Fold CARD domain-containing protein.
Amino acid sequence: MEGKHKKVLQKCTVYLIQNLSEVEAICDHLVVDGILTQGQNNSIKTKKPAPRAHISELLSLLPRRGPNAYHSFLKALDETENTDAAEYLREHDGSKSTTVDTQVAKQQHTEQPEEKHKLQSQNKQDWPNLSKRFALVKIDDIAKCTEKEFTTKCGSREEKIYPMKNVKRGKFIMISNAECISKDTESKCDVEMKKAATYSQQCITNSDFDKSNIGQLFKCMGYDSKVGNLVNKPKEEIKEFLKKTLSEIDKDPSSQYDSLVIMFVSGKNDSDASKIYDASGDEVPTTDILEIIKACHHFEGKPKVVFIHTYNLEEELDMFDSTDSSVNNIIKNCEPNNDDIFVVSSYPRTGQGPWVVGENMNGSYFIQGLIHVFKNSACEKSFIELLNEVNACLLQAVVPKLTEDGKIKTVEKKPVAQIVVSEYCEEKELYFFPGFVQKAIEK
């Protein structure tokens, strides 16, 4: 960060501590821009008392987060209803803008400035839209389920549908070990080492965005994620953390969760799809995780969803998963269970890696596909229907393509990943009913 911007932040510290709001959203925006790591974001949120300690910690970190940190911070303020604070800083740094300037800046952030860099598809339903980066999910992005829609879905079938009507729709737990493990670079030339380092940083930025955005999705859908985040631990600590978290829910008489969602994010070079890895790259057996989940009495008879996202951190993949399936529907590698458990992952269908391909794009196909479908369709479709829709997006994803002259960019549709269900239950249907809370019956 430039010296003058450091001085501005120091001079305005008291004002910012007294006036900033939506600090978590500001930090999430900075994670998306690659200014903060997810670990730093999590650390900020643990400081007390909130929000003053959160703001102080953020302001102490920003000067050390690179030349773009100040302008990214201003942009985050503009996009989180902290425009007065943004203008206050601009007054002190000499770049005070007009309202029109601010609106233009916002538009330039969401769109590429030059038309030749836009990769817009003809069909608005095509996914992803390569003309702009994915944004963090906001509460207003979630299509809400109305009482009429709820009644239509349930009706006389209520006994065949999981009851998802409490304010606390569920508990969300994130366990992440997506460390970018570098290969031995001693024999590589400087150019290759620099390329490997650049790709490693891209992996970190993309995985941080994935984790922030999927957590934000379920938060906006009514899930509690407090004390539900574990990062970069060995397998035994992962299992103990999960046991402790679920045991505390069992012991708490005020717990009223309708469901459980756990997201495992892990990655290493030469990983196998749909497997969980710890911080050292050792496999964490999925069967061990499921046994821990089954032992939690609070979630007996309630839906328990486990998402497993495994990043293969190779820049180019030499081969696909062992099935190399050519079918276009969801792959089901199991028989139905009676434990109300659903385990969902994905297999790669492209040699380009897990990240969304496109200029200035962010995140991975699997996670961003889930978010895209869930925020738009969870209000009316069952969990399995949602997965089928995600699968359709992944099998017909819009990707950049160069013409024969190698200059003009066009787009094409091609498979990038495929949904895999390794555990599912057919006894009841799972609907999330976002935004719907059943009113108490008056006596």
